[in-house]
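The methods section describes the discrete structure representation at length, but only in general terms. The central task, working out the structure tokens from the amino acid sequence alone, is never made concrete. Nothing conveys this as quickly as seeing an actual entry. For illustration, here is how one protein appears when written out as sequence plus structure tokens:
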Amino acid sequence: MIPKEPNEEAVDVDPSFEAITCRTVEENPPLIQQEIDSIILPSSSWRRGDFSVEGCINYFEIQEKEKSVAIQKIASVDFKKRTFSHTILNRDITEIEGKNGGTFTSVAEVEDMLRKLHEARICPGIVNNPEKYPQQNSGLVRNGKLVDGIWRAYNCSLLLSDTDTTNKCTCCKFLHKALQMQMKRMKTLKMHTKVNHKYLTMKQLSHKVAAKAENEARRKSILKKKKEEIAALKAEIKDMRMQVATLKNDEINVILDKINDEKV
């Protein structure tokens, strides 16, 4: 029975309602600072950032390379909202394989999430090789991009689970095959004079048509000049023949004149 206020009637409340309300409030009690500080990191390479005013902490893995340090994995944990998110290679990932997806209810689940993130391998992508793969500006690759010498599919999952025995994610595998096929087609086009326009983009095709028209106009201009030169040579030859003929007629006349003079 809930106590009534003045001028109000008493209202009967089911006791089970009060029990459900109390249980709901106490289901996710706020984590105290001591519990948060006691979270065990999955490896000595992991570090913990500062606790923000919003109740968020960034956990990140430091990878030491030759004369450089890289941070590729970051887990952002919101202890007030009980949510977490992952950032891999500067790309935000909200879902990976793991319990409760992007939420947690206890410190143990945060530790489990960090452990799985630590064990998950990053998709290496495809190391660029100009002799094997087309260049980024060729316009032939549509489902991936080249960044810092690595080809990576636009839909790359970035993370590989610990049970995945492959060396690339599914999207990067398709990209690898596409790169190989495009390079093979480019070599085929170079080997044959007849271009198969099926493998060209609209931009490449328009450039090809424009270049062909330009070459055709250049050939016509050269041909016209050659014809004019040939016509000029023919005219010179004709004049030379006329001069030769005139000289011969003059010589014949001279000889005839001499003969006539001798007879006289």
